[in-house]
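EI: anyone free to look at a 197-residue chain?
SC: sure, send it
EI:
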Amino acid sequence: MLERWRAGDRLAGNRLFDRHVRALMGFFRNKVDRGIEDLMQDTMLACVRGRDRLRDDGSFRAYLFQTARFVLYEHIRRRRDGAFDPEEVALADLGPGPSTAYAKHREQQILLQALQRLPLEYQVTLELYFLEGLSGPELAIALGVPEATVRSRIRRGSEKLRAHIETLNESPELRESTTTNLEDWLIRMRSGPKKPS
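SC: here you go
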């Protein structure tokens, strides 16, 4: 389907995007409080315009999230008048963030709040790894860094995430449940609402 889309088959392209629309919506839902549909549309249009740059050995998912990441960062730069370093600035630093009310369990709400306290580049890395299941090579493409850097970010991001969870949890039992089963909670968050809100 990817080759047909790159060759100009618009129907194949539509099917590719339909296959990934929920994941794309989830990517933005965890990071912005409004305008999700506009950001999704901007991402899809940018993918179409740049499809000839898609590497032969790259996956469409990696390309899609690479594009979504650029669209998100540009959106944040516009809101901040250009001053923004995703390796230093967390969503929590930018003001009130997106709601975590859609999370099914208290542990997931705490986890989302903790993710939003990470520098955005770490948040994106962990979400793409745990929530979307991108492989090391796919993450390297999506993030534009070597695989060794990806592994380092996953390790350091997980450590920072656990530290934030420690500060957010109001009860020892909840803190223990969240941190002990951290990867399980992240993976469970893969299933989200079916339609953008």
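EI: The first helix runs from residue 2 to 6.
SC: 👍
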